[in-house]
Amino acid sequence: MTTVSSSTRSRGNRRAEILDAAARLFAARGFHGVSIEDIGGAVGVSGPALYRHFNGKDALLSEMLLDVSSRLRESAGAVVTSASGPDETLDALLHVQITFAIEQPALITVHDRELGNVPEPQRRQIRRLQRLYVEEWVTVLAELHPECPAARLRAATHAAFGLLNSTPHSAGELPAQEMRPLLHAMARAAINAAVKDH
Amino acid sequence: MTTVSSSTRSRGNRRAEILDAAARLFAARGFHGVSIEDIGGAVGVSGPALYRHFNGKDALLSEMLLDVSSRLRESAGAVVTSASGPDETLDALLHVQITFAIEQPALITVHDRELGNVPEPQRRQIRRLQRLYVEEWVTVLAELHPECPAARLRAATHAAFGLLNSTPHSAGELPAQEMRPLLHAMARAAINAAVKDH
DNA sequence: TTCGGATGTTAGTCATCATTAACGAAATCG
DNA sequence: CGATTTCGTTAATGATGACTAACATCCGAA
To answer: Is B71 in CB contact (< 8 Å) with chain A?
Structure first.
């Protein structure tokens, strides 16, 4: 059979390298605050070399966000289908989001800031994935508290995301070992408070 | 006595109008994604007219962020000096932040995204005000839980801000009447969970 | 009424930047 | 060994955008 050619491997590596560097730069300075030259420079090549790997700056951002929202939704889907009970499922969802927020703070940042710069029709698809992800959470919360109106559950979910995605702001305050359970406990408590008495 | 001349009044209004429109645009598309023309257009004048009111785009952003961080710190200072007890003080701080987040979502958004685009030396001053604001929270939390390490309190504070500042994301999910107590309850519960057992 | 400042306007100017062109070297494959 | 693909490079090119200049207009005050 055909083995993975080294060209395929290096191409993939270079692409990933570029996506990674671009994510960091976009998170720090915003999509329009970063030039193609900047991104190329960050991976040791110069400017237009990027066009060997992506169709353009927009395509780069599109792929980045599509990848993030796919992975999040996929993880959430896996968690939900292998669920034992709603309570454990919620903990597992928290685990997914916390892992992502701690390990990929730049991607998380770009993910919730730069959707507006993605051109249609990718925009629509990313929106769809984001919505599905939120709905996984809302569904689990609704199982736990069927009497709570969906709008409230959705607002609570967004608030929980805001809490969890604060990691880029408190970078360095605490080691990940402590940050992880702290975020879990805070988010869990916040969600419980949100659905209490409804 | 000298009355406020109409020129002063209209100048102030126009300046405020510009800052308001610019905040909304910056929040939606990012600092570099908005042109001077865009901002002018949003208030019914065209492009270079802005230079009659601000020294440039950077100065506009600087003033916007300086104003926000001053107001937040000032409010927090007022709350803390007129405090009855740490518990009520924390509630009052929550009230301040929630009011701001609900009434000025665009400003809050710009405030925590665009500091990187403010030139020195204003950058330093805004940073200073932001830090002082955080420290007001940390001080109050430390009074409530002296055994909790400051780093953890700081991380918890940032997480609470993330939760409260999620309003732009859940815009329209709930009316402000419901959003307000929901955010208060969630943030309060999250903070309590953060300091428990420390 | 006349002067001056405040506030706009339109038409440059100069940088920056995304994108494309044209061209080279290294590696893969026949 | 060639030949083709892959991955880079350095120069255009064309748009966009911040900022400045030169020129109105309006309005309050002397």
So the answer is: no
Instruction: Name the residue among A39, A16, A20, A190 with its Cα closest to residue A103.
Output: A20
pLDDT tens string B48-104: 999 999 999 999 999 999 999 999 999 999 999 998 899 999 999 999 999 999 999
Cβ distance of A182 and B164 shorter than 8 Å = no
**Predicted confidence band at A171 (pLDDT cuts at 50, 70, 90)?**
confident
**Measuring CA to CA, which residue among B32, B58, B132, B157 is closest to residue A28?**
B32
- The structure's pTM equals 0.93
Cα gap A176→A48, rounded to integer Å: 37
Residue B162 predicted with pLDDT over 50 = yes
Rounded to whole angstroms, the Cα distance separating B43 from B54 reads 14
Gap between the Cα atoms of A179 and A190, Å rounded: 16
Annotate A62-88 with b (16+ C-beta within 10 A) or e (fewer): bbbbbebbebbbebbeebbeebeebee
Residues in chain B: 198
What integer best gives the mean pLDDT of chain B?
A: 93
How many whole angstroms separate alpha carbon B111 and alpha carbon A136? 31
N- to C-terminal Cα distance for chain A?
A: 60
Residues with CB under 7 A from strand C: A 5-7, 32, 34-37, 47-48, 51, 56-58; B 7, 10-11, 14, 40, 45-49, 52-53
What is the rounded CA–CA span in Å between residue A59 and residue A175? Answer: 35
List the single residue in B170, B191, B193 with the smallest CB-CB distance to A155.
B170
Asked if the Cβ–Cβ distance from A193 to B185 is below 8 Å, we say: yes
Q: Do A173 and B164 touch (CB under 8 A)?
A: no
Which residue on chain A is closest to B188 by alpha carbon? A190
pLDDT in tens, A150-170: 999 999 999 999 999 999 999
Query: Percentage of chain B surpassing pLDDT 90?
Result: 89
| % of chain A with per-residue pLDDT over 90 | 89
Six-digit token pair at B74?
């000032």
Picking from B29, B154, B165, B166 by the largest number of A CB atoms within 10 A of its own CB, the best residue to mutate is: B166
Q: How far is CA A179 from the centre of its chain?
A: 18
